[in-house]
Amino acid sequence: MRLDKYLKVSRLIKRRSVANEAAGAGRVTVNGKVAKPATDIKAGDALDLLLGGRHIRLRVNSTPEAVRKEDADSLYTIIE
Question: How confident is residue 52, by pLDDT bands cut at 50, 70 and 90?
Answer without folding.
Answer: confident
